Amino acid sequence: xxxxxxxxKPANWLLPLLFALPVLAGAAAALLLWGDKIRELFSIxxxxxxxx
Length: 52
Description:
The N and C termini lie far apart (61 Å). Helices cover 73% and strands 0% of the residues. It is mainly α.
């Protein structure tokens, strides 16, 4: 007996997007506000990883 595939609602692909958009907006805002400090911290972390 063949199984019937459930119908996929057209709006189902929007759900992950709705969860991801606030995260991306927060990341963009953080980069705008603290971009230089984040870059310095990242540089220090890379130097520490190379040294060890």
